[in-house]
From TrEMBL:
Name of protein: Uncharacterized membrane protein
Pfam families: DUF819
Originating organism: Neolewinella agarilytica
TM region(s), chain numbering: 6-23, 30-51, 57-77, 89-113, 155-182, 208-227, 233-256, 268-290, 296-316, 355-381
InterPro entries: DUF819 (IPR008537)
Lineage: Bacteria, Pseudomonadati, Bacteroidota, Saprospiria, Saprospirales
UniProtKB keywords: Membrane, Transmembrane, Transmembrane helix
Length: 383
């Protein structure tokens, strides 16, 4: 039965459903659906309910080749670049400087742990993945991972994801307490930001009709096909451009068209595809291979810690020099490290509803910028 694609797909989708329910209704909400689905499916694969990485499945191949890129495409349809200006100059400046701080942190962290030696051929890819995820979020992390086939190293990928989740959670606590502490130590003013609410910034639920579903699926598949064809054409012309980068560009261009940007259903479909992708990553986590990542565990932890600390020093240092609002700096930093949802949660926790929309907007900007920055770092280090 393990050889049946229908069985494998059923169990993967059911795993996503179970993990989402557990995160919403139990103490496991602290883990998050992304990490929980990896762990849950890893257990299923290792006890024999799902094929392992070595056994393989056409479903695994299909998810990597089609669903994972499509998830990135659908999530990026929510990035309306024209609305980013509403975030305000201080938020945008701190966000972009924070992105540069992330790059500096990746380079510093890799130098500290001698990443080129310990990660080998994956050194550029891992650098690009952490650059992407700490610029805008997991969409960028997965985009770089897909191009460099890092997901085939299931145990390493799961370890990286676990470390990422741990440090991201810790950074949420830091950014929650830092503004109050820094205001007591160094003073500072609270700057109100103009953040008139818009109806389409955060969609907590989406109703999908046959028409909208048909448009989303057909446009997504056509864009994926176009990106693959363009990659082949450019390769024949002597230019090596990742197809995922072309797909990202197509998605961002379509997102600027109001019809596609406001089309309901894309975020839900994209997120579900992401969870399916992560479920397959879990299936790639064979216990027999766990010993291989053992010595790398502390290096990964040291790497991510250095990245986030350097990023934080750059962001809050810039806020200190420019005498900017500490709350704005914290939300901008969280938009880099955790993405829109984390920035939103932080703004609520700080009692700064005026930073509600700006945090979401720069987080959305990070979803677009992170992939480019991630590939730039990976390409530079791999040259």
């Amino acid at each position: 039965m393990l050889d049946s694609p229908l069985y494998v797909l059923t169990l993967l989708t059911l795993s996503v459903l179970i993990c989402e329910w557990l995160v919403r209704n139990t103490f496991l909400r602290h883990l998050g659906t992304a990490l929980l689905v990896i762990l849950f499916v890893a257990v299923l694969a290792n006890v024999g309910f799902l094929p392992s990485a070595s056994e393989g499945s056409v479903i695994y191949t299909g998810v990597f080749r089609y669903l994972a890129p499509l998830s990135i495409f659908y999530l990026l349809l929510n990035v309306n670049l024209a609305s980013i200006r509403r975030a305000g100059a201080p938020m945008l400046i701190l966000f972009f400087i924070g992105s540069l701080g992330t790059v500096a942190g990746v380079l510093a962290g890799m130098y500290l742990i001698d990443g080129s030696t310990h990660f080998g051929d994956l050194y550029p890819a891992i650098s690009g993945m952490f650059t992407g995820t700490y610029t805008g979020g997991s969409v960028n992390y997965n985009a770089v991972a897909l191009h460099y086939n890092v997901m085939e190293e299931g145990v390493l990928y799961a370890g990286m994801t676990a470390v990422d989740n741990i440090i991201t959670a810790i950074w949420m606590v830091v950014t929650l307490g830092a503004p109050m502490l820094l205001r007591r130590l160094f003073g500072g003013k609270v700057t109100e930001v103009d953040a008139a609410a818009t109806a389409d910034v955060e969609r907590e639920s989406e109703e999908i009709s046959i028409i909208t579903l048909g448009v989303l699926i057909s446009v997504g598949l056509a864009s994926l096909m176009a990106s693959n064809l363009l990659t082949e054409w450019l390769a024949a012309a002597g230019f090596n451009v990742p197809s995922i980068l072309i797909l990202t560009t197509i998605a961002l261009l379509l997102a600027q068209i109001p019809y596609f940007h406001k089309l309901p259903g894309g975020q839900v479909i994209g997120l579900f595809c992401v969870y399916l992708f992560l479920a397959v990553i879990g299936a790639f986590c064979e216990l027999a291979a766990l010993a291989e990542i053992g010595p790398l565990a502390w290096r990964l932890l040291a790497l991510v810690t250095v990245i986030v600390l350097v990023h934080g020093l750059v962001v809050f240092g810039t806020a200190a020099i420019g005498k900017l609002d500490w709350d704005v700096a914290a939300v901008a930093s969280q938009a880099n490290i955790g993405g829109s949802s984390s920035a939103l949660a932080l703004a609520k926790s700080l009692g700064r509803m005026d930073l509600f929309l700006p945090g979401i907007l720069v987080g959305a900007l990070g979803n677009g910028l992170g992939t480019y920055l991630g590939f730039l770092v990976a390409g530079w280090l791999g040259a």
